[in-house]
């Protein structure tokens, strides 16, 4: 049985005070639902603070991005090993905002995924389609292409130590959410596609849904057989909302 994972992506948000209040507020919620893995991805500048605040709790954390290089003249970047040194378990890779705003191609995402694993972190591979692609009915083709780039570079075995997050771009920050049935259909297809390479790995990999998850929608989404939790945006910045999502993921 795959354990549910609820991960908050804080994006470019937070202050020292709000981070402290948020972690302190989420710690009891995480402890109250031991069947759910809870993680947060703060802006990198807050990682040291999050490391201190989560000590002794069951809240894991990760980065929102990582570079392919371990060192060098790459101003503004952070190596996976640096993130690991601050206690990170995860790093997001291929988030739609990185793909669109920073022009990260499938090949770039695959290279970062590889570097993240080599650096000792668990990559959370974000895949998903735009509204135009959704309306054109090519969602399954898009996610297959995004997955294939990683499989070609890193092999299917790499997914034994990775998380996949399906994020329909049209449902991020818009208030729109794919129905549980639509989301389940895509999640099932992702698992089926991976199973074509290795059925055992496909059966074990956690596939999260990312797209305006709320406390009201969490239970129905996470109750689907192939949805193993959520990559949560705006709601992860509010203690009450994120706590409700954690509760919704509890089995």
Automatic annotation (TrEMBL):
Subcellular location: Cytoplasm
Enzyme Commission code(s) on record: 5.3.1.1
Entries under InterPro entries matching the protein: Aldolase_TIM (IPR013785), TIM_sf (IPR035990), TrioseP_Isoase_bac/euk (IPR022896), Triosephosphate_isomerase (IPR000652), Triosephosphate_isomerase_AS (IPR020861)
UniProt pathway annotation: Carbohydrate metabolism; erythritol degradation; Carbohydrate biosynthesis; gluconeogenesis; Carbohydrate degradation; glycolysis; D-glyceraldehyde 3-phosphate from glycerone phosphate: step 1/1
Cytoplasm found in the keyword field: yes
Secreted is among the record's keywords: no
HAMAP family, per the entry: TIM_B
Protein name: Triosephosphate isomerase
Naturally occurring in which organism (per UniProt): Aeromonas cavernicola
Lineage: Bacteria, Pseudomonadati, Pseudomonadota, Gammaproteobacteria, Aeromonadales
């Amino acid at each position: 049985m795959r354990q549910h994972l609820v991960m908050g992506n804080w994006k470019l948000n937070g202050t020292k005070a709000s981070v402290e209040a948020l972690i302190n507020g989420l710690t009891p919620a995480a402890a109250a639902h031991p069947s759910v893995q809870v993680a947060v991805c703060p802006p990198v500048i807050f990682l040291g603070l999050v490391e201190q605040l989560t000590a002794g709790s069951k809240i894991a954390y990760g980065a929102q991005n990582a570079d392919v290089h371990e060192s060098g003249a790459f101003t503004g970047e952070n190596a996976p090993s640096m993130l690991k040194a601050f206690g990170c378990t995860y790093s997001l890779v291929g988030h739609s905002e990185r793909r669109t705003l920073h022009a990260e191609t499938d090949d770039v995402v695959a290279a970062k995924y590889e570097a993240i694993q080599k650096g000792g972190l668990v990559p959370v591979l974000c895949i998903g389609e735009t509204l135009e692609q959704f309306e054109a009915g090519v969602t399954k083709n898009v996610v297959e292409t995004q997955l294939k780039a990683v499989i070609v570079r890193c092999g299917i075995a790499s997914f034994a130590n990775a998380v996949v997050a399906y994020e329909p771009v049209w449902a991020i920050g818009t208030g729109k959410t794919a129905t549980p049935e639509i989301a389940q259909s895509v999640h099932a297809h992702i698992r089926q596609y991976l199973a074509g390479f290795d059925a055992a790995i496909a059966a074990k990999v956690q596939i999260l849904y990312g797209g305006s998850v709320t406390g009201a929608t969490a239970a129905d989404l996470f109750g689907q057989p192939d949805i193993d939790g959520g990559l949560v945006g705006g709601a992860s910045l509010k203690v009450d909302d994120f706590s409700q999502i954690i509760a919704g993921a509890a089995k």
